[in-house]
């Protein structure tokens, strides 16, 4: 059984993937997680920013664990597509990627620096996932450059397809990149 802190982090990630970061208030996280009201400030003395950062880390860990379990690059890619496809359909196209949500919404338009910790965490999550995909591609026989390039194409294409699928309420973008990139993936890992 997880405690209030862990439930709040998981709830924040789930709410962000459906609503985005800005509309997800601490009160919403408390209600969704069932955590006591005072626990937000006890567990997250850094406030909403700390909670968002930890929700990104949680989402990053969940995806990284799935990627690391794949026994081939094709299985990894098929799993990514299947996971997002199921998530979109089961949520009536409300649930996307919480890391994309915070990356798009993070930062103040008036800020001139890139010290936004939420945006830094999102960047770290994408970097981590892309590295895991590249590692799997190399393990399947792709050379270093091809693995890095193909991993970035996969990461950006999947995330972009999820965004377009949500906006159009249609999984066709995922299905299209699945077919096209699977061919490229097979070619990219051939020894």
TrEMBL record:
Keywords: DNA-binding, Transcription, Transcription regulation. The keyword DNA-binding applies. InterPro entries: HTH_TetR, YxaF_TetR_C. This is TetR/AcrR family transcriptional regulator. The keyword Transmembrane helix does not apply. It comes from [Mycobacterium] fortunisiensis. It holds the Pfam family TetR_N. Residues 11-52 form the HTH tetR-type domain. Residues 74-178 form the Transcriptional regulator LmrA/YxaF-like C-terminal domain.
């Amino acid at each position: 059984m997880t405690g209030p802190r862990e439930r709040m982090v998981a709830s924040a990630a789930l709410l962000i993937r459906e609503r985005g970061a800005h509309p997800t208030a601490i009160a919403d996280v408390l209600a969704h997680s069932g955590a006591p009201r005072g626990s937000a400030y006890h567990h997250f003395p850094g406030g909403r920013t700390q909670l968002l950062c930890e929700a990104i880390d949680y989402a990053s860990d969940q995806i990284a664990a799935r990627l690391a379990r794949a026994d081939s690059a094709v299985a990894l890619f098929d799993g990514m597509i299947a996971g997002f496809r199921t998530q979109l359909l089961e949520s009536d196209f409300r649930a996307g990627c919480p890391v994309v949500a915070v990356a798009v919404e993070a930062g103040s338009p008036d800020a001139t620096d890139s010290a936004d910790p939420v945006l830094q965490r999102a960047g770290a999550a994408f970097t981590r996932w892309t590295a895991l995909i590249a590692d799997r591609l190399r393990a399947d026989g792709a050379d270093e450059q091809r693995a890095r390039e193909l991993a970035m194409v996969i990461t950006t294409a999947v995330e972009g397809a999820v965004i377009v699928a949500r906006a159009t309420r249609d999984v066709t973008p995922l299905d299209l990149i699945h077919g096209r990139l699977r061919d490229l993936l097979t070619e990219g890992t051939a020894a």
